[in-house]
């Protein structure tokens, strides 16, 4: 079986040969461009459960992509195997029937003809942030989600899920946040902050005395003032909000 680096190299060689950009590959496979970039940069392992999707776009077999078989040979389908066992007169009948079925199929316009995969992409939620009193998170969630492609921003680094209502009406409970990872968030912008081990989504503010605090948009919640005794880490800035 191929290593992760070998799989990515094979994919790169195939898209170069076919003239497919990384962005176009992401669209055809149905994943976010940022996720595809992490595969190519080798900061995330190739998703073995998506080998069929990649192989379909590249025109190779999943087995060849993963290195399970040495040559890119597709096993004959059951219908071909049966067809080849028939005598010629029966083969002609099968061919005539198949042509009739194809002609009928081409006349049918289904209300489901618009492929969902063209309108949705797959990405992963890596974190949980509190729109409330903070939440602890020891490990990444790495929860797979399908997202409407038109509602996904062009550039972001990671996705977090919201728990709580302190940022209503702009951000609702269970919304997904697209985050640009940065160690600095400008004043009056909404960011993701880790305070004493708890993750928050809040607006960064500063009062007239020069003291920094995190503000909720929901007036039911008090400001969280930051002090020198707090363990403070800025995770990133919110660049997009996704609601169901």
Verbal overview:
It is a single chain. The protein is of the alpha+beta class and 244 residues long. It folds into 3 domains: 4-66, lambda repressor-like DNA-binding domains (434 Repressor (Amino-terminal Domain)), CATH 1.10.260.40; 79-107, no CATH class; 118-242, Umud Fragment, subunit A, CATH 2.10.109.10. It has helices at residues 4-18, 22-29, 33-40, 51-58, 62-66, 78-85, 88-107, 116-119, and strands spanning 120-130, 135-136, 143-148, 158-163, 176-181, 190-195, 198-206, 212-215, 224-225, 232-242. Strands 1, 2, 3, 4, 5, 6, 7, 8, 9 and 10 form a 10-stranded mixed beta sheet that branches. It is elongated. Residues 109-116 have low confidence and may be disordered.
Determine the CATH superfamily of the largest domain: Umud Fragment, subunit A
The third-level CATH topology of the largest domain is Umud Fragment, subunit A
Bulk shape: elongated
CATH class of the largest domain equals Mainly Beta
| Gyration radius from CA atoms, angstroms | 25 Å
Mean pLDDT: 84
Low-confidence segments: 109-116
Sheet having the most strands: 10 strands, mixed
Strand content: 25-35%
Q: Helices and strands: which structural class?
A: alpha+beta
Task: Lay out the secondary structure.
Blueprint: H1 4-18, H2 22-29, H3 33-40, H4 51-58, H5 62-66, H6 78-85, H7 88-107, H8 116-119, E1 120-130, E2 135-136, E3 143-148, E4 158-163, E5 176-181, E6 190-195, E7 198-206, E8 212-215, E9 224-225, E10 232-242
Parallel strand pairs: 1-4
Antiparallel strand pairs: 1-3, 2-7, 4-5, 5-10, 6-7, 6-10, 7-8, 8-9
Helix pairs in contact: 2-3
InterPro entries: Cro/C1-type_HTH (IPR001387), HTH_AraC (IPR018060), Lambda_DNA-bd_dom_sf (IPR010982), LexA-like (IPR039418), LexA/Signal_pep-like_sf (IPR036286), Peptidase_S24_S26A/B/C (IPR015927)
Domain HTH araC/xylS-type: 5-42
Domain HTH cro/C1-type: 17-65
